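Lecture notes, structural biology module. Today: joint structure prediction for complexes of two components.
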Amino acid sequence: ATLTSEEQEDFEAIRGDDITVKSYRVESRITSRFAHTTVRSSVVNSGSKAQSIGFNVQIPKQAFITNFTMTVNDIKFVGSVKEKTVARNLYAQARAKGMAAGIVRANSQDMETFKTEVHVPPNSLIEFELHYQEMMHRKLGFYEHSLYLQPGRLVPHFQVDVYIFEPNGISSVQIPNTLGAQFEELVRVTQTNDKAHVVFKPTLQQQRKCENCSDSAIDGTFIVRYDVKRDSNSGELQVSDGHFVHFFAPSNFSPLPKNIVFVIDVSGSMWGVKMKQTVEAMQAILDDLTINDRFSIIDFNHNVRCWSEELVHGSSFYIEDAKNYVQSIKPSGGTNINEALMRAVQMLVKASNRGQIETRSVSMIILVSDGDPTVGEIKLSTIQKNVKRAMREDFSLFSLGIGFDVDYDFLERIAMENRGMAQRIYANHDAAEQLRSFYRQVSSPLLRKIIIEFPEDSVSDITQNHFDKYFSGSELVVAGKVLPSESNTLTSFTTASAASLDITLETEADTAELDAELAKQQHSFPGFARQMWAYITINQLISERSLAPTAAKKRKITQRIMSLAVEHQFVTPLTALLVEGDDGERLLADSPRDPKHGCCSVPANGLTPSKVVYQPPPWVLMTTTAPPSQVETGPREEQIVPHHINIVDND
Amino acid sequence: PHFIVHLPRSNMDVCFNIDSKPGHILNLVSDSGSGVVVNSQLIGSKRVHKGKLNTYFGTISVYYQPDGVSVTVSTSSIAMTDGRNNHSFTWGATAEITQHGLRISIVKNSHVAITVNNHIQVMVLLHRVWKKHPVNVDFLGVYIPNNNQYSPLVHGLIGQFARDPEVSLYDIHEGLDPLKKEATMEVNGNKLLVTRGWQKDYRQDKRRGSNVYCWFIHNSGKGFIDGHYTDYIVPDLNSFLQMP
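The predicted structure, tokenised, for the full assembly:
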């Protein structure tokens, strides 16, 4: 936290009888779509009394925290990732001795908050450092790196650095103006063929809300959007540190024709803004359909209605008629998801049996719902079974959950189980745009039945390498370990079906070249391939775990997740970060839960909401913003038992 | 472009040049019986060199009419279209693409083989030059095997030689250039003065090529090919040859 003389002057100027943030630095190193972000803050209690100092960081939900350290007046607390039970036991021991404090991680929409508060004596200097890692997922042709900036105060040294290194080259870097007009000119981007550096470093004066204000205007998401160069359709194979990553994002294929059944929840809870935004989104989505596509609309509350009993072509006549139909919907009544989905599947089956579905087309159901089922079959596990039984291998289900009254985990499970994906739509945001954006992601399927394979004995521990579909603007990623070999090249073979043709693509990579290149780069992240492999594997295992049919299988998956998470230092739903001081004081950061929804459901992973326990040591106090009623004082043993999954260790 | 025609019956290679204008599309094979057409579009060098603007094959197109499928190979990409769908591939990856009876095999930065119904094959070789070369441009070479099974209706600058013409060669003598002999060739009822020379086959060695010794026909193959070379200029990449 060394300040320049100018910053020191600023620091003296704002230093008052209060807490002063000397510096706030965010640094992201993105290498081949994998980001390691570090948030560092240096805070001084300039007042004459002991005070609470907070360190709040919002991190993307898909990120895994990898470390947190804190230095309070030169006493260092160092973090380490441990199996959750181990961490909790150690934490409990410390607590029994009055040597424990807490860290809260809480969920909000697409970010989660990492929050620490320290109660420190006057003239204390505290340094916080949080590390997290995440993989950039390509959507609509871009990778997007989001950093939520909320220093809360004016900061003499405020700086954001994003370093991007993409071995195949960077095609574009964009910094959308999301923080406000006053910061528009303050972002600097330096770009070469394979590197980019984005710097945002507003001075103290530039941070002020107005000329004489003492409030900071920095409060929002700083977004870096970029894409990479692709010189072929076969993908990019990268080998580093004994691991490989294969990126596959071809373009220049004609989209496959689609057969879509839109299943829209029009129950009473959709009344108002939700329905208005759904209608608005549907108008745009329907306009996107082409004459080669076939579609129908099913709207449901306690009853199920079809706009057309059969799939029809996306002609202007039908599109206009469908738009009028959607416009006229008046939400009311209950929610019968089971029957609506069954009707949608039957519609696709009927069309398929009649030969109305082209062999190489993509058939999908897009479900939009804002609540749990209340009519007909309401047991989620039964609906899940029914849908899976009825769906054919060629059909897929995409679910959109509007708001927080819907069991999003359920929607995600049925989507994943049926070759689709799910997305939460935030009702208080621009829901229409979110719906349209989701549709744009899935509206251009380019390939089907994609398999990425490697010669026998060349790789091991490969992540998912069979994919049902590839959508334009997205990216398929396969990672694994490279087995020792005399050859200095690794080859991959990709097979897929496009509209009217079958393709086999071959990609080669030198197994030493990239490491040599990374060694030369000052701001790259050399362990990216190893961490990315672990990141993908853990996420896949978490998904598999939620679908595991037997307790034994689930237990095995749990063990594997825990061992990988500990080895790669990821805070996952099954591990925790134990932060320890030299003299045995301990803090515990558990993963947060999805916010509660509805009245009756529980989180799919069966974990109880995270609660923070603290027992302040004499000089340092870690607190939580959780209401007192949620703060436990005794050992936490109780578990909410979900009725639809198998319970094993750590559930 | 240079043309080399191997005549199996005479066990002889005959060659000629055609210097047409950039943009012109020359028909190489036109087989209305099997529905296959192979055309080539010419590109010019970057500028006139020694008073001459050289032309090369910049695009090769193979069109299979029964399926309405067209494969267009250029120096930058390989595109396939069936009227409704367009797919394109770069030279940057080895790939195998199949659609019904058509197979395209791309070998990274090297060549592409297009096979129609297992009995007609066209191989296109990519020649890359230094990007900043003041004169030269990237160009393509095309190789069409003698054993392609065409229908009796086949024609075109190359296709016409599916019917191996009767050739006799005599009066071989020293030419003006002592390294190049001259002779008289009788073919298709024409007597032609031909010169011994060589052209390059780049299939085995893309950089240096291997020499193919051949009898060179002057005046753009006049007398050896049926009609005049301009008769083989077609309006677009999928056009069949309209012979009178």
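Point to remember: Chain A has twelve helices and 33 strands.
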